[in-house]
Design a protein that fits this description.
With 307 residues, the protein is mainly alpha-helical. 71% of the residues lie in helices and 0% in strands.
């Protein structure tokens, strides 16, 4: 045997003795098999959660159903519509409580909650636009501001703050107003509740106030007796739409045309300042989100220049 061969064998022997187990550092497949089996069995033992069936998300689905039901009754039955719409809005506070109580806060739930809020308010404002076409541009502007503000805020939060960052976690250094708005549950609830109350009050006034809806004082011409236009409470006689004037639908329509305007005026007057503050918050939120995203763009451009 040559000296070179003997030296190679001696080196291999020293390497095998230096290893912790006294064997070669290369592991064989058979030695890795038990750990793989253990990891697979541990994965099977972990419970699989269904995010879509979490309690706050089920409440969110209920809000969607109530919203569609209120939209169905919106053109002709203000009492029923207002009741369903109000319950849907109140459940907005309950789903947040359920998420904290059951420790089931999820990104899907946050998005579901926000989308439901935006779509519900937008549908009510669309009806108000049809009830008062002269002021439609104001209601359309409110829809655009609400949608743009919340979309930009959530997009900026996810892109700049991270995918696990909640849109309600606002640092006070960025905006003191948004920090107070989102970090105080009382302030957030009052602003959202009275903002919706203002639009509900306007909706009820479209059925009860001759000052805002002069058509309430005008009799319906016989030529228009076959149609009931959404947003125009001066509907034809119940007997012209229903076979029996004593049916549930005819009685509900008769009650709808006899709404008192006192309470709708009170609700609208009390909630008007809060609604105005909520729109101001939407403007601040949109501007703050735009600036935050612009800062990220500048950082990205600087990083590209250094490359």
């Amino acid at each position: 045997m040559s000296a070179r061969t003997r030296r190679q064998k001696a080196a291999l022997k020293e390497e095998s003795e230096d290893s912790p187990s006294g064997n070669s550092s290369v592991s064989t497949p058979s030695k890795r098999t038990p750990s793989k089996k253990r990891s697979k069995s541990a994965a099977r033992e972990e419970p699989r959660e269904n995010i879509f069936l979490f309690a706050p998300n089920i409440i969110g689905y209920s809000r969607v159903v109530l919203t569609f039901a209120s939209l169905y009754y919106m053109p002709l039955h203000p009492r029923t519509c207002s009741f369903l719409y109000t319950v849907s809005c109140l459940l907005d506070a309950l789903d947040g409580y359920a998420a904290r109580y059951f420790n089931q806060s999820t990104t899907f739930g946050a998005v579901l909650d926000m989308v439901t809020d935006r779509c519900t308010t937008a549908c009510l404002l669309v009806f108000l636009s049809s009830a008062w076409p002269r002021w439609a541009i104001i209601f359309q502007a409110l829809i655009c501001l609400d949608m743009a503000s919340h979309y930009m805020h959530m997009y900026a939060t996810l892109s700049m703050g991270g995918s696990d960052q909640s849109h309600k976690k606002v640092d006070s250094s960025r905006s003191w107003i948004l920090y107070q708005y989102y970090n105080s549950k009382t302030v957030l609830f009052i602003c959202c509740a009275l903002n919706e109350a203002f639009f509900i009050g306007l909706y009820l006034l479209s059925f009860s106030s001759p000052i805002l809806s002069p058509s309430l004082l005008q009799p319906v011409p016989e030529a228009q007796a076959s149609s009931a236009q959404p947003g125009n409470p001066a509907h034809p006689e119940p007997a012209s739409l229903f076979a029996s004037p004593w049916s549930a639908g005819a009685l509900e329509m008769a009650r709808a045309n006899k709404l008192e305007s006192t309470w709708p005026w009170i609700i609208t007057g009390i909630s008007l300042p809060v609604m105005a503050f909520k729109q101001f918050v939407n403007v601040v939120q949109m501007v703050n989100a735009a600036r935050w995203m612009a800062e990220g763009d500048l950082q990205a451009r600087r990083a590209n220049r250094k490359k």
